[in-house]
């Protein structure tokens, strides 16, 4: 049976939505998908990854446009965008689906390892001039014009900091929460949800916040629950299934709230 067609159960809980908004909900929740990581192809598509790469590159260029823009973004926005590009490159490197010949003709494929490594090089820069020097190669990588380089084998760790992941999730969630209520652009909402699901895979691998080995299963469960339900939210947006969007979104939020409650001391 598909996760989208499984039975639902009635739950009334006080739920901390992503990053702090507390609401009391009386709602029918869809049963979450199976508690294991999904394939990349069921989390986010290659076209979505390509669109995200273009978006993040435009942000990088914006942050490097002037010395003031660089100074204002050097601690948070710039490393977040470079980290997102590294994650996108990694996802493309290990993606389990392939573009068709027509898709390749329409938009040159991005070589994942090349993009990932170019983004990591940007993330290691310390000055504006160093950062600017990485932009030409980064641009070629995003446009599918770079000579393929880099290894397919790379861990999901070391691509982006957990702090910047949380900032990215917080930003996307504020948009997604509005889209759950009403959206005129379901494809964009789906891409936001899918990207959040992708970041759930990164969180699954970054376990440095787990101080006790006995808590590792809880971290893994929260991460997988978040990833699978964010991905299911994206699919519901794509299908236009309004009966599934909010339940899956709230299940993803529930996993996030549970993780924060368990692992954050503040």
Largest sheet: 2 strands, antiparallel
Mean pLDDT: 86
- Structurally, the number of domains stands at 2
What is the N-to-C order of secondary-structure elements (H for helix, E for strand)?
EEHHHHHHHHHHH
Oligomeric state, counting identical vs distinct chains: single chain
Q: Any low-confidence stretches, pLDDT <50, length ≥5?
A: 1-35
Q: From the helix content, strand content and strand pairing, which structural class follows?
A: mainly alpha
Number of strands: 2
Helix content: 55-70%
Estimated radius of gyration: 19 Å
How are the secondary structure elements laid out?
Layout lengths: L7 E9 L5 E9 L9 H4 L2 H18 L3 H7 L3 H18 L6 H6 L5 H12 L4 H15 L19 H20 L4 H20 L10 H24 L2 H22 L3
Antiparallel strand pairs: 1-2
Helix pairs in contact: 2-4, 2-7, 4-6, 4-8, 6-7, 8-9, 9-10, 10-11
What report would you give on this structure?
The chain has 266 residues and is mostly helical. It has 2 domains: 40-142; 162-263, Four Helix Bundle (Hemerythrin (Met), subunit A) (Up-down Bundle). It has 11 helices and 2 strands. It has helices at residues 40-43, 46-63, 67-73, 77-94, 101-106, 112-123, 128-142, 162-181, 186-205, 216-239, 242-263; strands spanning 8-16, 22-30. The protein has a two-stranded antiparallel sheet. β1 (8-16) and β2 form a beta hairpin. α2 (46-63) runs antiparallel to α7, α6 (112-123) packs antiparallel against α7 and α9 packs antiparallel against α10. It is globular. The termini are far apart.
């Amino acid at each position: 049976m598909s996760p989208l067609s499984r039975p639902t159960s009635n739950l009334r809980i006080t739920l901390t939505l992503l990053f702090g908004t507390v609401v009391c909900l009386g709602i029918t929740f869809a049963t979450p998908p199976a508690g294991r990581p999904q394939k990349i192809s069921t989390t986010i598509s290659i076209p979505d990854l390509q669109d995200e790469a273009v978006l993040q590159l435009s942000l990088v260029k914006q942050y490097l446009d002037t010395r003031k823009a660089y100074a204002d973004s050097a601690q948070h926005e710039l490393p977040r965008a470079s980290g997102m590009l590294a994650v996108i490159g990694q996802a493309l490197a290990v993606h389990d689906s392939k573009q068709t010949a027509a898709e390749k003709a329409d938009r040159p494929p991005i070589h994942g390892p090349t993009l990932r490594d170019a983004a990591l090089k940007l993330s290691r820069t310390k000055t504006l001039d160093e950062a600017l020097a990485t932009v030409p190669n980064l641009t070629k990588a995003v446009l599918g014009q770079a000579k393929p380089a880099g290894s397919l084998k790379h861990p999901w760790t070391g691509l982006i900091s957990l702090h910047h992941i949380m900032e990215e999730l917080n930003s996307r969630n504020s948009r997604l929460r509005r889209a759950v209520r009403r959206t005129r652009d379901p494809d964009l909402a789906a891409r936001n949800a899918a990207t959040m699901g992708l970041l759930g895979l990164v969180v699954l691998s970054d376990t440095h916040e787990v101080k006790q080995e006995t808590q590792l299963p809880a971290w893994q469960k929260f991460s997988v629950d978040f990833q699978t339900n964010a991905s299911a939210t994206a699919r519901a947006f794509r299908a236009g299934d309004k009966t599934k969007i909010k339940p899956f979104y709230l299940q993803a939020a529930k996993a996030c709230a549970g993780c924060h409650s368990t692992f954050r001391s503040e």
